[in-house]
Amino acid sequence: xxxxxxxxxxxxxxxLLLLILLGVALVGKGLWNAGADPVIRTASVELxxxxxxxxxxxxxxxxxxxxxxxxxxxxxxxxxMRRFNKLKPDLILLAGDFHSGKTLATRHYSAAELTxxxxxxxxxxxxxxxxxxxxxxxxPEPIAKGMKAAGVTVLRxxxxxxxxxxxxxxxxxxxxxxxxxxxxxxxxxxxxxxxILTTHSPDIVPDLPAPVDAVFAGHTHCGQIALPxxxxxxxxxxxxxxxxxxxxxxxxxxxxxxxxxxTSILPLRYGVxxxxxxxxxxxxxxxx
Length: 288
Prior knowledge:
Structural class: alpha/beta
Number of helices: 6
CATH topology of the largest domain: Purple Acid Phosphatase, chain A, domain 2
Shape: elongated
């Protein structure tokens, strides 16, 4: 074969090598992003019905831990929990999806292994969890048992009082385990006081019987993969980007939706860092 005839083949090989290197770099960047330190986002909610004399409460929202290799082994989650303790939260809310069914996971873990790291979480009024769709698709009862062993209270359309707060936990909407009527009845039974809800998917918000002081959810991952000029590929929500991410007010309802700590389907993140929310709830400021 002449040198002139071989020239297009060499050029094609160079382009192929360049594309392979670019693909490897993009995957490496996505893996790096998935393993990055989570952003600590903060907000305040001032409540007219906050009990007089009660100090404000710092509520930490942690969602979508999706324990699996390579990006979220149990050891990493345990280390993150210890780091979050330094924020001195009064209450920690775990908004579901502790298991991971990632397509390209390098390792999966048992229910006991993926819940054990939460024993590291420390808060004045403890840790409360709800289950997510991945938990129901995996082993909901062993996960709930593992949470209990870790000292975590799991709410399944139930409510508890923690300090001045009434906390309702709505079970997973994606797998049709949610029951708002039962959850609100449980909150009513605890008497008056400021109310918050935690749940996995924010898609419950349009169906709430009445607004609460704040809703804390996850599930959307804030898109997880957001491309330039395109945005997020999916929010896994029936409402599109209505409850996509962050600190929002929908009608009369304040809600917080976290990007999560782990990843779903692919162990990659682009343009959407992992995060947690530290929200201070307290009395309304006096007007001057």
